[in-house]
Amino acid sequence: MALLEGLIDPEVLAAVNDAAIVVDDKDSVALAQAASVGIARLEAVRFRALAQLNRHRDGARSVAQEVALELSLVDNHAGAMVAGADALTTRLPRTLSLMDEGKLAGFSAMKVASATVWLSDEDARAVDALLEERIADKNPDQVRKAANHAANTVDPDGAGRRAEKHREGRRLTLRHGETGVASIEVEDGPVEKVAAAYQRIDREARALRSGGETRTLDQLRADVALDLLLGGQGGTSERSEVFLYMDLFTYLGLNDAPAELAGHGTIPATLARHIAAGETSVVRRIITDPLSGQVLDLGRDRYRPTAGLAEFVRVRDRECRRPGCHRPAQACDIDHSLPWQHGGHTADTDLIDLCRRDHRLKDEPGWTYRLASDGTLTITTPTGQQYDSAPPPLHEPRPAIDKPPPF
Question: 368, 362 in Cβ contact below 8 A?
Fold first, then answer.
């Protein structure tokens, strides 16, 4: 609350924290505005701290992962924040000053950093000067448009190169949402192809809609897009491997305990049974420790031992073992927690799943990984912070049953 002192009437500030006191609309808006000013100033402090950390580490690629752990962020957001912090403290000082004044939020400042990333330092500073009087108190979309316009004004010859660079950055992303749903997105695709793809999807969806469909147009567009991605047959000819965790009683419909889909999280029992009942689904036997819920064995009659070991580790871990990373184990590397040449063994007690980025992170200076006998992985960052990761149990640990006294 100290940041708000001097920005708003102290009596109003105290009143809003007292549920028994109702402040009027004008004071409520004023307090929200004052809080936004304070948040912007704090975000400027955070950017400077991240920039200093990045400079101390000479821009090592592991800085983003360390920031992700320390600030509880996803990797992409952490990486963007580190890059933005570096730009704001070196090439965009006036934009950073607007944050100090509480006139620009951190998210909006990131739009300026993104729009100028391809420019030389000199041109970036020119854009920074042009925007100083244009982006204060503007929303993120207004800031984005102003920053892109300024970048094209300062470096018109480079506009084509920037467009090509952006198109080279195209990628497909998967974002998990609430229970049972997820989103797939083509980011930074060529605009002409994206527009053409949307028109085709929309055309086919509207054709279905005119045929008496009860689904909404939005639902039809989504269904048509997924159908086209899966070969135009609704996925019936496609087979993909996902790990679905549910106990036997849930599978048989005797209870409705939640199940878990690796990489996504908890899903309702009814949805889990629907997925498990698919024509191409394969049910596998998994034996767990009744006391801890950890995987002890996996039925694998048709696999060679080496393949069986890899599958066992993937089933046990479910996802990348770095805390905060939820890439499914099927898309991860199986790695030794202790380098093989330094005493590691090719056994489930020494193997873990790490996505490619975190696999490489393990080899960065200052990062150490230790795997305990119970499967707990302890990661120590260069600053000495420790984070534990344990394979999630397949069921809640159950109390040991006392043996009856001997006669």
Answer: no
